[in-house]
């Protein structure tokens, strides 16, 4: 690997690794798994000399690799879980990352959504991609993505309203011609 490629990889890592981990975490609900598959995606990129010159959008390529790895691991886990239910194996307990309660509630609520809606929400709101680009990635129309986003936001609002403690009441400030009234 040449020096300029190594520098390019460092720049891509610095610019996108944390975003990719957040996106994969939102899709999988498992922070350690997200870290692992993003790391593996970067390792695969390093193992392919010249890959940086061949792709138009390195972060999109890495996201695709990381999500494909997560899907493959999920499928393997399903097979393992079926085997574990036979009683021949004893699976290890789930590992929860130490994150804020709001973050955990959001990921839990995202996990309850259908995959297509969850992916649209993650790509648009967490990956900060425009609706048009999300539609291209998903291979559907912009209107379909807007519908998924609206349905997803409604479902999250209901789910998070049930899980999060109520916000403290805000002070309402009303202006009148005699001064300011606080309620």
Automatic annotation (TrEMBL):
Assigned keywords, A-Z: DNA-binding, Sigma factor, Transcription, Transcription regulation
InterPro entries: RNA_pol_sigma-70-like, RNA_pol_sigma-70_dom, RNA_pol_sigma70_ECF_CS, RNA_pol_sigma70_r2, RNA_pol_sigma70_r4_t2, RNA_pol_sigma_r2, RNA_pol_sigma_r3/r4-like, WH-like_DNA-bd_sf
Domain RNA polymerase sigma-70 region as annotated: residue spans: 14-77
CDD domains in the cross-refs: Sigma70_r4
Domain of life (superkingdom): Bacteria
Domain RNA polymerase sigma factor 70 region 4 type per the UniProt entry, residue ranges: 104-156
UniProt record similarity statement: Belongs to the sigma-70 factor family. ECF subfamily.
Protein name (database record): RNA polymerase sigma factor
Provenance organism: Rugosimonospora acidiphila
């Amino acid at each position: 690997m040449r020096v300029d490629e190594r520098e390019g990889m460092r720049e891509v890592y610095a610019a996108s690794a944390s975003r990719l981990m957040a996106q994969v975490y939102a899709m999988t609900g498992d922070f350690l798994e997200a870290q692992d598959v993003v790391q593996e995606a970067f390792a695969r990129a390093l193992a392919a000399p010249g890959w940086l010159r061949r792709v138009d959008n390195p972060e999109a390529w890495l996201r695709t690799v990381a999500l494909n790895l997560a899907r493959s691991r999920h499928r393997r886990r399903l097979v393992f879980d079926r085997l574990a239910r036979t009683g021949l194996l004893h699976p290890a307990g789930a590992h929860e990352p130490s994150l804020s309660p709001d973050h955990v509630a959001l990921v839990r609520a995202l996990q309850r959504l259908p995959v297509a809606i969850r992916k649209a929400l993650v790509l648009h709101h967490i990956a900060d991609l425009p609706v048009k680009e999300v539609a291209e990635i998903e291979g559907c129309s912009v209107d379909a993505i807007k519908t998924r986003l609206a349905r997803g936001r409604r479902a999250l609002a209901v789910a998070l309203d049930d899980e999060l403690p109520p916000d403290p009441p805000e002070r309402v400030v009303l202006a009148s011609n005699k001064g300011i009234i606080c309620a």
